[in-house]
Amino acid sequence: MAARRGFDSPPALPEELLEEIFLLLPPDDPARLLRASYVCKPWNRAASSRGFRRRLHERHGAPPLLGFLHNSGDPRFVSTTASPFPLPAPDRRSWRALDCRHGRALFISVADEEARVLLVWEPVTGYHQRVPAPPAALSSDFSNAAVLCAADGCDHRGCHGGPFRVVFVCFDEELLDTFAYLYSSETGTWGEPAILSGTTFDLNQPSVLLGKSLLYFVSECASIIEYDLARHRLDLFDSPLDFEVVLDYDRLVFMLSEMGGLGAAVARDSRLILWSREPEDDADVPWVQSRVIDLAKLLPIGDLVTESSETSPKVMGFADGANTVFVGTVAGLFTIELHSQRVRKVHEDSEFSSLIPVVDFYSPCCTLGPPGSKDHGLPLSNASEGKWKEDKTLGQARELVDKGSKAIKEGNFVDAADCLSHALEIRTAHYGQLAPECASTYYKYGCALLHKARQHKADDAAFPLSNVPVSARVEQSMKNTTSKDDTGTQRPPVGTMKISPSSGKGLNSNVKDQEYETGDSKDDDNVGDSDLDLAWKMLNFARVIVEKSPNDNAMEKFKILFALADVSMGRGDFDNSLGYYFKALAILEHVVEADHPGIARLNFRICLCLAFESVSKLADAIPYCAKAISLCESRKQRLENAMKALLADEGDNASAAEGCSGKFAIEYEMEFLTDSLAKLVETLEVLERAMSTPSSATEGRVA
């Protein structure tokens, strides 16, 4: 009997035929393609090739919604497809998700805020690139960013690995300005910032891209910031909620309208309300309520009935390209496709922070191993697993800093100081007391203590920086303030700062005591444990660290000096306060425009410091108040001219307006300047009245 013949392996299918088969798989169920790619290397190569990804776009058109990134917990990526599939994302212990667009996701490092880095990551290919954050990222607690393709004429069907741009937007609490920086991967540099003056809010939700060059960010008070990439210009305008108080359950989310303009969505009771703002030439574009969707007809009625409006449905996000909104209810998270109104429940939980949709065609990267393997080519963490405990501790410090910053914003300065004190204790123990990584924590802790002291003394007219109206404070100072020669109650200036465990909470007791020069002053044997004394010490730690740094950090120095000046004035140390104010002014004059409101503010602070110090200094104080008025008037006039040029929008006027903020931003700043001028003029009148009647001022002071 003839021997049984063995079976030969079937011939390998041509790669072109494999691609044709894979194209038949539904793109909104990428788990099928992922399983097929694990069969063998030839199948993996076919499923992961650049040509196949382009053919996916050509065959199916609009990419599907794959899921979303978030910053609330693990897993970092939540799949919303028919069959869940893994997509390893950067570790939330080290990275915070900011944006996702054109096949790229953007993250910012969180473990080390003194050396922040942005991470551009392609979820499909695994490609990633680190980008040093702009200097403003180190000192701002209120920031956002966006990533987008930079290739001219790109249809975004195969732009993975191509050039990109990053827009970083942040708010400066001291200058009350919003800055926008633009990064190019082709040059590897950040450009000069565009500035929007007079804004007083922070940024918290993912941006929306309209066309090729207009990015929109929403603030917590639902104001809208527009960044024009083509003109490198910021603008500000109202949201459809018209600046009304927007609570968390009344969350406004940006989207693209059906006509291609800017849209917005908010859930109220059981209704999903949509607005649109279609672009028009030479006109103020109004918001129009374009559509109302009855959620009771789409979602189970039990998912909408709640005992509190705070747990009623709310819009969590919008998936650009998929025309889908995320709606959170007490029963979980749902997606609603706006055109078909198809609804899917995608998660049991609805409490996600910074929900960032991922819209793209998925194809496995050829370097990927099976789920759970480490061969992903992705920086899941800034540190190895061996340093997990160390990273966890630093992560706790970062959470404490975030919590403390939020508490300052909410006016809860006691909790803020407590959180920042513990964060400082962790960081100084890890890095050392004078490490650059601790500078911003010293600064924030010092500011929290300053705010706490102001709050405690808000009703005390003798405290120069209380919340009493300016004119009343100046008049009261005419009665209560004495010169250095009249009393011995003024606190002597501080000459050296001894770094020791007793200097305040959060200092490392294992570090050897050292002394550093902190000013032109002498000994300070009278420093106690008051909030102002401790704030002064913490801010001086920050100043010493920053001044020793080789980096160009002018704004950090300015903020620290400004805070030191405020603390010194609160302690009655007017000489040092003036010195710090003048140093801060010298820095600011080299950073911003000559008529920037921050310069006017500093001149006014110098005026107050002189007026509070002594009646004999009133003559010195008046010119600084007059200078602040002159700067505000000059800037207001310039803004009025810019507004006329924008409205005319023709000939030389149009070119004169180029580079200025848009008319909404101008109107906002002009209103701010008008209010400021009224207070400045009122203060100047008080000072001049005191100068004209010195005897009455002296009698009041003696009394």
Can you describe this structure in just a few lines?
By secondary structure, this protein is α+β, with helices and mostly antiparallel strands.
What general outline do the C-alpha atoms trace? elongated
Number of strands: 26
CATH class of the largest domain: Mainly Beta
CATH structural fold name of the largest domain: Neuraminidase
**Largest sheet at a glance?**
5 strands, antiparallel
- pLDDT below 50 for ≥5 consecutive residues: which ranges? 243-249, 366-388, 459-474, 477-529, 650-661, 696-703
Structural class of the helix and strand makeup?
alpha+beta
The overall average pLDDT, rounded, is 76
Tally of helical runs: 16
Beta fraction of the residues? 15-25%
Task: Identify the notable features of this structure and list them briefly.
703 residues; alpha+beta; Neuraminidase; 3 domains; 4-stranded antiparallel β-sheet; 16 helices; 26 strands; 36% helix; elongated; disordered C terminus; coiled coil; F-box domain-containing protein; F-box-like_dom_sf; TPR-like_helical_dom_sf; F-box_dom
Write the layout of secondary structure elements.
Layout: H1 15-22, H2 31-37, H3 41-48, H4 50-60, E1 65-69, E2 77-79, E3 95-101, E4 104-109, E5 117-121, E6 128-132, E7 142-149, E8 164-172, E9 177-184, E10 189-190, E11 194-197, E12 208-210, E13 214-218, E14 224-228, E15 233-237, E16 253-256, E17 262-268, E18 271-277, E19 288-294, E20 314-319, E21 324-329, E22 332-337, E23 343-347, E24 356-359, H5 388-410, H6 413-431, H7 439-456, H8 470-480, E25 496-499, E26 514-517, H9 531-548, H10 554-570, H11 574-589, H12 597-613, H13 618-648, H14 651-657, H15 663-692, H16 694-702
Antiparallel strand pairs: 1-2, 1-24, 3-4, 4-5, 5-6, 7-8, 8-9, 9-10, 9-11, 12-13, 13-14, 14-15, 16-17, 17-18, 18-19, 20-21, 21-22, 22-23, 25-26
Helix pairs in contact: 1-3, 2-3, 5-6, 5-7, 6-7, 7-9, 7-10, 8-15, 8-16, 9-10, 10-11, 11-12, 12-13, 13-14, 13-15
